[in-house]
Amino acid sequence: MTGEVISLPDLDASLVKITNSATPKTPLPPSKLVFGKTFTDHMLTVDWNSNTGWAEPKIETYGPLSLDPSSVVFHYAFCLFEGMKAYRCEDGTIRLFRPDMNMHRMNRTAARIALPTFDGEQLTELIKKLVLLDSRWIPGEPGYSLYIRPTLIGTQSALGVHPSSDAKLFVICSPVGPYYATGFKPVSLQATTKYVRASRGGTGSYKLGANYSPGVMPQLEAAKQGYAQNLWLHGPEHYLTEVGTMNLFVVIENEKGQTELITPPLEDLILPGVTRDSVLTICREHAAGQVQVEGLPSSDFVVSEKHMTMPQLVEYQKQGKLKEVFGSGTAAIVSAVNNIGYEGTDIPVPVGPSGLGNIAQAVLDRIQAIQTGKIDHPWSVIAGKATN
């Protein structure tokens, strides 16, 4: 070595080696699918080493990973993941929804814990190949899709807290049905400051595996008290942040008599959700007159990213100006809230006859139409034609 910078191989989709499964499974009937319980025939794996860069990608039979017990992922939580979906459309195409957003967030998260970054367009191409190979697993019925889980872990076999010299990127896929198979069911939340999901300067805005398991026990405690999830509050002011594992939206009638859609600003507490950004963009374009979205207010509609405290939400409710509260995320797209427990009192939240408020219903319809190709939109990225 003479000190010059050496460029290590980046992820390269053209080098992928595809080995078809010798024992393909029979897909379950759509009605039998349970979220995250069934997986397709194949998976994508790519190894990385700090001296040699990204290795040849492989698409091969879905199966166990072989890892040394001392692998850093087991001891120091070198683990991050993404959640995205593929859809079988009426014209026979398979489409991904905003994969560029997932790739950007995955790279941002990888950099935060010193795992390798990669060419997002190349990983998207590899994911396209994987979902097309397993396209027979994607149900064509309305509301069904293929959930895609790209994951990156540190695999160096050595104890000690330091950057991992080895990593493995893998992608698995699971056919899933509608999140609310029997109709929309608004949820009841427990607003809590007993536990903290994220703190300023921390890792709450990154999609790390370590951010999720600490939320399980608080959720169990909320369930014992009759609530479905936690509404995470922050600081002595009780700022609203997120709901469970979803981004949060509140709709109010503001002081000017306008309908205002509010979500907390990202800063470093809030995960930059793909669905969150989609909701904001759709509503802002509608409010600006760039596109008309059925169901959204025809006038006096404001979209804001700003702080709101729980006491402020309670005051809007007392004045009859709280219109709806909902969460957003990949799995459900939107999830309505009909009650919030706060300091010993239940705060009722309006919901529509369908179980969703007007804003949540409108953005849900718009996003689903884009995802399934019913609306031509750059967010809907064609992977190719279904092979079976």
From TrEMBL:
Pfam families: Aminotran_4. It catalyses: L-leucine + 2-oxoglutarate = 4-methyl-2-oxopentanoate + L-glutamate; L-valine + 2-oxoglutarate = 3-methyl-2-oxobutanoate + L-glutamate; L-isoleucine + 2-oxoglutarate = (S)-3-methyl-2-oxopentanoate + L-glutamate. One of its GO terms (cellular component) is mitochondrion. Its EC number is 2.6.1.42. PROSITE patterns: AA_TRANSFER_CLASS_4. The keyword Transferase applies. Its cofactor is pyridoxal 5'-phosphate. Keywords: Amino-acid biosynthesis, Aminotransferase, Branched-chain amino acid biosynthesis, Pyridoxal phosphate, Transferase. The keyword Ribosomal protein does not apply. GO terms for molecular function: branched-chain-amino-acid transaminase activity. Signal peptide: none annotated. Gene3D superfamilies: 3.30.470.10, D-amino Acid Aminotransferase, subunit A, domain 2 (3.20.10.10). SUPFAM superfamilies: D-aminoacid aminotransferase-like PLP-dependent enzymes. GO terms for biological process: L-leucine biosynthetic process; L-valine biosynthetic process. InterPro entries: Aminotrans_IV, Aminotrans_IV_CS, Aminotransferase-like, B_amino_transII, BCAT-like_C, BCAT-like_N, BCAT_family. The modification N6-(pyridoxal phosphate)lysine is found at residue 207. Belongs to the class-IV pyridoxal-phosphate-dependent aminotransferase family. NCBIfam families: ilvE_II, PRK13357.1. This is Branched-chain-amino-acid aminotransferase. It comes from Filobasidium floriforme.
